[in-house]
Amino acid sequence: MRDVTPWPLRSADRTGAPAAPMDLSTLSVGQYDFIANAFSFGLAVMVATTIFLWFSRSHVAPAYKMAITISGLVTAIAGYHYLQIMLSWESAFSVTNGTIETTGYAYNQAYRYVDWLLTVPLLLVELILVMRLSRSETVSKSVTLGGAAALMIILGYPGEVAEGGATRFLFWVLSMIPFVYIVYQLVVGLKGSISKQPENVRGLINGAATLVVVSWLFYPIVYLFPLIGLTGGAAVTAVEVGYTVADIVAKAVFGILILTIAMRKSEAESNASA
Amino acid sequence: MRDVTPWPLRSADRTGAPAAPMDLSTLSVGQYDFIANAFSFGLAVMVATTIFLWFSRSHVAPAYKMAITISGLVTAIAGYHYLQIMLSWESAFSVTNGTIETTGYAYNQAYRYVDWLLTVPLLLVELILVMRLSRSETVSKSVTLGGAAALMIILGYPGEVAEGGATRFLFWVLSMIPFVYIVYQLVVGLKGSISKQPENVRGLINGAATLVVVSWLFYPIVYLFPLIGLTGGAAVTAVEVGYTVADIVAKAVFGILILTIAMRKSEAESNASA
């Protein structure tokens, strides 16, 4: 069986074998704390957003309740994974009297991939559901965009855990194919459907699609960090805090935006039918 | 990268380098216990208030439900952070046979900043939502007041973790700019909107705005304690217990006040439409 330990702490890194892309042993106490606080912040934001979204289901028309249920599911799943990430992070280090040591327990970065595999397809489904397209369009767009998103995550993982830079780059390229397809669909492919949306939400839906594209750009860039020599404590801090901010924007802020769209559409539709 | 370890336990504090603004090693058993009990009290109050507020959503008109949902979110988020603060406090000390020792594990005061970054903007949003202004006013006031609140917290943090008194004072001044802006908005800027509120709640809304201003005054004063030489066990006790009381007033008492306003307005509006 191949070694699937997350790359920052693969045993090879600790035994002088091929250098790890990123080395946790260079982290300072301040960097460790800052990352731990960012994870705790992420956990609190995700759980709070979940509760807010699920309470707010009562403010939208029945047609939009499923979009809001799923928006809250995305942040709930992310909240669970931030708890796991936070605990894994704490178990990987021991900080006493202001000095930091690695404990030898691995920081399991694979939780991020498990999270994305579930949440990234779901948040595209949120966006499709809130547009309230025809049933056939809803199904076909959910399957193609959700499927492409799952494929993107699955193709990224082997490169993330690979020893060599060449393998990492190969899977980056493979993973970018579905990535570019999704971005194309969001920026160009959905244009027709967006133009049929009520005028009061068209800007918001465009905004939600743009938010996905912009917040997602962070991930492939960070993935390349080890290849361009960005390692060490500062790089680990940038990656972990950056992922957390990107996740908050792509899931929590995005979910609130989907709720706003659903509330406006519900309001407009109830006025139209009155 | 700069050291962002919370100031009470930065490594320098323990190695005879520049004196810590506050030193946990001078704490007595009685002071340790008193603070631990205050944290437990804070946790219980926050969780109980959350449950009370969310159950009470059914007592207010739909227009006010979101204000109550958010009031409960603020206390829920604070409850989570009081749990983290309490656990961090307990891990920093070992009390056996009536003697107290520091364990070397840091007391992570940054949890307070993580908490405030989320809850302070939200509790201004509570107040705006319960006033039921026009949509554009609600959005613009939420963005400006919430944004100023977030900026205030972010600007306070570098001074809190800084070594030197000068840096601490500089960030105190910077953080006071959004603070004064918010206070001005609450005391003067909202006057026009408050005068348009139904007469039976005008006093309560004024009271809620005043409660925010008064309870907030505690924070910038405490922030200056280390600069005026207030350190040691008694100062730590005053700061930690004081923060806890201020948090309870600004979040739990404030949340109950928001609920009262929402219930009175719901009642008045249902009478008016009957």
Task: Give a short synopsis of this structure.
Two copies of one chain form a homodimer. Chain A is mainly α.
Which properties best describe this structure?
receptor (chains A, B); transmembrane helix (chains A, B); globular; homodimer; 9 helices; 3% strand; Rhopdopsin 7-helix transmembrane proteins; transmembrane (chains A, B); two-stranded antiparallel ribbon; mainly alpha; Xanthorhodopsin (chains A, B); 274 residues
Main sheet summary of chain A: 2 strands, antiparallel
What does the radius of gyration of chain A come to? 20 Å
Task: Write down how many β-strands of chain A occur, each being a DSSP E stretch of 2 or more residues.
Answer: 2
Helical content of chain A (DSSP H or I, runs of 4+): over 70%
Largest interface: A-B, 28 and 38 residues
Number of domains of chain A: 1
What sequence of helices (H) and strands (E) makes up the elements of chain A?
Answer: HHHEEHHHHHH
